[in-house]
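Reviewer 2 asked us to include a model.

Predict the structure of this chain.
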Amino acid sequence: MKIDPTSSKDLSAQIAAAIRDAIVSGAMPVDERLPSEAELAEQFDVSRSTVREALKRLAAQSLIRTQRGATGGAFVNRLRYADAYSQQITTSTLLLSMNAVSFETACEARYALERACAPLSASRRTPDHLATMRVEIHRQGQPGLTDEAFCASDVAFHRALVDGAGNPVLSYQLAGAVEAMQPLMNMITFTARSRERIIALHGGIADAIEAQDGGAADAALVELAEYTVELARSVFEARAVKG
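Predicted model (structure tokens):
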């Protein structure tokens, strides 16, 4: 593992990148203990505080974990998809909020990804996935349900559809699409949407998944995507008139 002390890039970032690359390549396997701070400082010819900052960066990425005690230290972590969901959601939310991504572009990406899951979910969903979808549809129809609760239920419904595909890589990739994009879409469209129509579309999706009809599930998602874009356009047009 090497760094370039003449580079303008922060030394702690370089050290973190070097260790990360060693972990990704398998040179440092899961559960292996990293050298001590003093050893790393000597190896990279930097201060211990610089090494400490590099280790903090790696811990923030869940690449290492620290243990106290005589047998403690920093160890290569076994990163799991579920553990990385929150980071994926945060990154997706920031990308959407900090960059000039149009609603239609975000919507196109979000539903294209989910539609890839529909046929897989139709053939692989478990009774628990289907039960979650039905429970959320029922919850969405409850009188007095707040917009925030409806949004949370909407996310849970689509999360169950995605997880029903039985593919952890797809579930991870769609964590940002569903749990970051969906709330942002709901924030824009909630004033114009018809809960009854959304519930009906959700029901159609669930019926198709239960019948193991991937084509029908895909068609229902297409209809939901078109309705979402239609809602957004009406909201933006109304804002333009007021503005």
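The longest helix spans residues 214-242. The two ends are 57 Å apart (CA to CA). We have added this to the supplementary material.
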